[in-house]
Amino acid sequence: MSQALGWKLRVKVPLTAGGELDAHEVGDTFHRWIQQRSVDDVAIYVSDYRHVANGPEVLLVGHATDLVLDRAGGRLGLALQRKRDGAAELVPAVHDALRRLYGGAARLAESLGKPLTLFASGELELRLTDRLRAPNDPATAERLLPELRRALEPLWAGRSFSLERAGGDAEPFGARATCAAAPAIAEVVAAAARL
Fold this sequence. Notes:
Helix content is 31%, strand content 25%. A hairpin with a 2-residue loop joins strand 3 (56-62) and strand 4 (65-70). The chain has one domain. The model has no long low-confidence stretch (mean pLDDT 93). Strands 2-3-4-5-1-6-8-7 form an eight-stranded antiparallel beta sheet, covered by helices on one side. It is of the alpha+beta class. It has four helices and eight strands; from the N terminus they run βαββββαβαββα. The chain is globular.
């Protein structure tokens, strides 16, 4: 009997322009979450990568997912990396990642006493990290961008948004979504929770 493999993917919500989070405070918060056993995965450890330029700063490493304070691409944001046990179909896999990402963003803002508006409501980066299943080429874009669009439509309450292939040829397949007329971040978080 053959079982379909789950999608491995990464989603990132950047901070609003000028927004900053202190990596040390985020790391302390991630440690507290592990101590309180309040992470929606088997949390393993927290790792500090602030020495890496334009990359991850602090990782909350879990069995199936990692939550990452990330500066990849030169812009700080919160990312969720699904490493294993993901849904076999792309749209449900993206929905699960969005639920976890925006739930984590809301919880992080609350834990740090920061406003939720620290996170951009109309921007999202996606990476499909399984290069065999989703090579970074035009054929993959033609095949998967429509599915990614379907997955993102409920996030912005049916508002118009752009979705384009992003990243270089040496990177995993990626896409960037931008919704210029996005609802407030609290509405986006609520929409993600309903996915």
